[in-house]
Amino acid sequence: MDGRELEDGEVCVKMLAAPINPSDINRIEGTYPMRPTVPAVGGTEGVGVVVAVTPGVRNLTIDDWVIPSHPHLGTWATHIAKEEGAWCKVGQDVPLEYAATISVNPCTALRMLTDFVDLEAGDVVVQNGATSMVGQCVIQLAHLRKIQTVNLVRDRSGVDEVKARLSSLGAEHVFTEEELGKLDMKNFLKEIGAGAKLGLNCVGGSTATAVMKLLGEGGTLVTYGGMSKKPIKLATGPLIFKDIQLRGFWLGKWKTKHSNEDFAAMTKYLLELVRDDKLRYITEKVPFEDFNHALDKAMGKHGSAPKQVLVFK
């Protein structure tokens, strides 16, 4: 912190942990639509502990754990002073790394499974980017509701281990794009009940086309990322003959249309799943002093790596 006095209604939070998300990197690169006023500190997600409050603070006390309810707080910092409304209190009965990473990727997965299509037990969701944190959460949240998932992954060394790990989370089907291309598509669509109701795309390019081909009549394709940096290639047939709907999702927009109470209820539900071992994903905790190495890993400079979570002393 800059040493200034806290204003009435503000809270000082000592950060405990904060992840490096792709959107954080995009903000630094200047490619993300929402940009903070510069100069700015990176990081939009994390968990901290309240170390000071002012008389106007009503619902937070010293030693509470909190996560940001607003973007652009700059969580890659040892201390942050912001108004009470910028924070959401969370329980301390979950591992630190889960509290630090619950408010972006798991929330995105939950909202996409809830807000676009009325899904029932036995329905099918297809997604690319299945090894991402969102993808892992989609598999588990769908499994809890007895919704099947068809999951596309990159062909890579160790792909069999990747498939086994996703299957252990509840995935019914896991394919590489090449394997999907060799399937008897007609028979496979019959196997999964005439196609998926919902498709989730975070990659773009030909992989988005592959997701689209697995959608059934009136299916919806939701795009929430573009990791390949390639435009979506749309197949004309499904648009015309299946009446496929194309939508987009951004958690930031969801937050502008919902209250802090809605956000708190959502994160509380997800953290309860974590506590009950019904939601899990792999992260790698890294001392804040090793930020440069963690950033390189987050940017893929050392191959595939788990979510990097900076831990502060």
From TrEMBL:
Keywords: Fatty acid biosynthesis, Fatty acid metabolism, Lipid biosynthesis, Lipid metabolism, Mitochondrion, NADP, Oxidoreductase, Transit peptide. Its EC number is 1.3.1.104. It comes from Physcomitrium patens. Its main location: mitochondrion. Pfam families: ADH_N, ADH_zinc_N. The lineage of its organism: Eukaryota, Viridiplantae, Streptophyta, Embryophyta, Bryophyta. Belongs to the zinc-containing alcohol dehydrogenase family. Quinone oxidoreductase subfamily. It is found in: Mitochondrion. Residues 3-310 form the Enoyl reductase (ER) domain. The keyword Lipid biosynthesis applies. This is enoyl-[acyl-carrier-protein] reductase. The keyword Oxidoreductase applies. GO terms for cellular component: mitochondrion. It catalyses: a 2,3-saturated acyl-[ACP] + NADP(+) = a (2E)-enoyl-[ACP] + NADPH + H(+). The gene is LOC112287087. It comes from the Eukaryota. InterPro entries: ADH-like_C, ADH-like_N, ER, GroES-like_sf, Mito_Enoyl-ACP_Reductase, NAD(P)-bd_dom_sf. One of its GO terms (biological process) is fatty acid biosynthetic process. GO terms for molecular function: enoyl-[acyl-carrier-protein] reductase (NADPH) activity.
